[in-house]
Amino acid sequence: MNENISARLFSVDDAGRVLGGISPWTLRKHIAVGNVKVTRIGRRVFLDAEEVERIRREGLPSLARSRAEQIEAAT
User: Which end of the chain has fewer CB atoms within 10 angstroms, the N or the C?
Assistant: First the structure.
């Protein structure tokens, strides 16, 4: 069977493994601050193949900077 890779969804755990061992907790923090686009099905959270590839190409921004920007925006 020929699977369409662009339509594949990865759980947070699977995406972390595909991305070279990124901790699921790290990915969840990036999801919480909006750095990573997700698809929610019920209570489950998935990353599509395009988002995983984008993260592989571009990497993830520093969480310290994202947190500082959140604090700045709140004041």
Answer: N
Residue 34 lies in a domain: yes
Task: State pTM to two decimals.
Answer: 0.73
3-class SS at 17? Answer: helix
Cα distances from 38 to residues 3, 14, 26, 73, 75, in angstroms, run 21, 13, 14, 23, 28
CB within 8 A of 10, min separation 6: which ones?
18, 46, 47, 48, 49, 52
pLDDT tens digits for range 20-65: 999 999 999 999 999 999 999 999 999 999 999 999 999 998 887 6
What is the C-alpha separation between 17 and 31, in angstroms, rounded? 16
Number of domains in the chain: 1
Asked whether residue 1 is assigned to any structural domain, the reply reads: no
